[in-house]
From TrEMBL:
MF terms in GO: damaged DNA binding; DNA-directed DNA polymerase activity
Keywords for the protein's UniProt record, in alphabetical order: DNA damage, DNA repair, SOS mutagenesis, SOS response
InterPro entries with a match to the protein in the record: DNA/RNA_pol_sf, DNA_pol_Y-fam_little_finger, DNA_polymerase-Y, DUF4113, PolY_HhH_motif, Rev_trsase/Diguanyl_cyclase, UmuC
Chain ranges of the UmuC domain: 2-188
Lineage: Bacteria, Pseudomonadati, Pseudomonadota, Gammaproteobacteria, Alteromonadales
Protein name: XRE family transcriptional regulator
An individual GO BP term: DNA repair
Family the UniProt entry places it in: Belongs to the DNA polymerase type-Y family.
One GO cellular component term noted in the UniProt record for this chain: cytosol
């Protein structure tokens, strides 16, 4: 048996964890630079607030209904995600974290101990709520795709209270018949449109198709989905997640930039993020991709990128920062209102298998990077940083409605006052 456990409107629910005053109020969360609505809590959904609409278009609607607006607090979300996944992991043999708020569970040794899957699902929900104050939905199925369908039913279909189980033919037919084909895991809107032209409108309609015909008409992935909907397991996940082959750090600015110092600071901050991620998966790179760009809607749009070849493979933040200083003049152009920049590490190699060059000095300071990472891991991100990272703060994202980072900053710890 498989299960899928995911949080209900995770970003919006996370905002309520440390702020009980807004738990009974409508809450929405905005994307980067407070651009669009990306998360809507169940209370706010009743107000028919459209998702992924630009904030300026729905600003008056939100104000009219006294909706609480929050900027994306990624530090808080990441920490709460870790806590939620740790709680969920206690209920299964194997866990696969699919996204920041979704986790697949696989039951083998646990199965003989579970008499009622509905009760077990509610036990998971109660435990996660008690220990993290995050509401979750739980779906059980004999395949990962059926577990995903059951999870959809648990949260979206009537007659389910946060838990749904597909463990017999009657339950399978009932839930799949009530699901639109676009709601099936891995189908999506474009493919659903093509399927509906073939009169395949529901998940049950797709389950009744011949897998070989779906493979011929579409692809092998859809054929496997058909098998999974009929209880034949085809999808598996790796026990060990593969290392990334490329690592990027990019972000648009909260406001247009023209100052070269501010732009250079932003690039150096991105390069330190890339270097830290490289060290985390014990990888090195010899090629850095650097780019800067104005908005494509500018009258004279500007975009410039270049690849910097490092003398030796590296994951050293100082080496990367020096590389940016060396080529920055080639990227910057006066009178350009910069909108975005980024750094990418290409053609990654393992730190374990490296051939040293007898004639090229190695500038990597491994001990310094270990010290930097250990201090930041213990005391919080950017407790120690390169001096060139701190030249300006003007490049940061626009987050006017940012809530406190309750779990990652000492100054933001919740305070309790007791009056005796």
């Amino acid at each position: 048996m498989y299960a899928l456990v995911d949080a209900v409107a995770f970003y919006a629910s996370a905002e309520k964890v440390f702020d009980p005053a807004i738990r009974s109020k409508p809450v929405v969360v905005l994307t980067n630079n407070d651009g669009c609505v990306c998360a809507i809590c169940p209370i706010a959904r009743r107000l028919n607030i459209p998702k992924f609409q630009p904030y300026f278009k729905v600003k008056h609607l939100l104000a009219k209904h006294k909706v609480i607006v929050r900027s994306s607090n990624y530090e808080l979300y990441a920490d709460l995600s870790d806590r939620m996944m740790n709680v969920i992991s206690r209920f299964c043999d194997k866990q696969y974290i699919y996204s920041i708020d979704e986790s697949f569970l696989h039951f083998t040794g646990f199965t003989p101990l579970i008499n009622d899957w509905h009760q077990y699902g509610h036990l998971i929900r109660r435990t996660v709520w008690r220990e993290t104050k995050l509401p979750v939905g739980v779906g059980f199925g004999s395949t990962p795709t059926l577990a995903k369908a059951a999870n959809h039913a648990a949260k979206k279909l009537k007659g389910f209270n946060g838990v749904a189980v597909i463990d017999n033919e009657q339950a399978r037919l009932r839930i799949l018949a009530a699901m639109d084909v676009a709601d099936i895991w891995g189908v999506g809107k474009r493919l659903a449109k093509k399927l509906k032209q073939l009169h395949i409108n529901s998940a049950l309609d797709l389950a009744k198709q011949d897998p070989l015909q779906m493979k011929r008409l579409f692809n092998v992935v859809l054929a496997r989905t058909v098998d999974e909907l009929n209880g034949r397991t085809c999808l598996e996940w790796d026990e060990v997640r593969q290392d990334k082959r490329e690592i990027f750090s990019t972000r648009s600015f909260g406001e247009r930039l023209t100052d070269p110092t501010v732009l250079k600071t932003a690039l150096i901050n991105h390069c330190t993020i890339v270097a830290r991620k490289l060290r985390l998966q014990r990888s090195l790179t010899k090629r850095l991709l650097l780019f800067v760009a104005s908005s494509p809607h500018e009258l004279n749009a500007y975009k410039k990128s270049l690849v910097y070849e490092l003398p030796t493979s590296s994951a050293d933040s100082c080496v990367f920062a020096n590389a940016i200083s060396e080529v920055f003049a080639q990227l910057y152009q006066q009178n350009v209102r910069f909108y975005k920049c980024g750094v990418g590490a290409l053609e990654l190699s393992s730190q374990q298998f490296q051939q040293s060059d007898l004639f090229t000095p190695n500038k990597n300071n491994i001990k310094l990077m270990k010290c930097l990472d250990s201090v930041n891991a213990r005391y919080g991100s950017n407790t120690l940083a390169l001096a060139s990272q701190q030249q300006s703060q003007a490049w940061h994202m626009k987050r006017e409605f940012l809530s406190p980072q309750y779990t990652t900053r000492w100054l933001h710890l919740p305070k309790i006052s007791c009056n005796l």
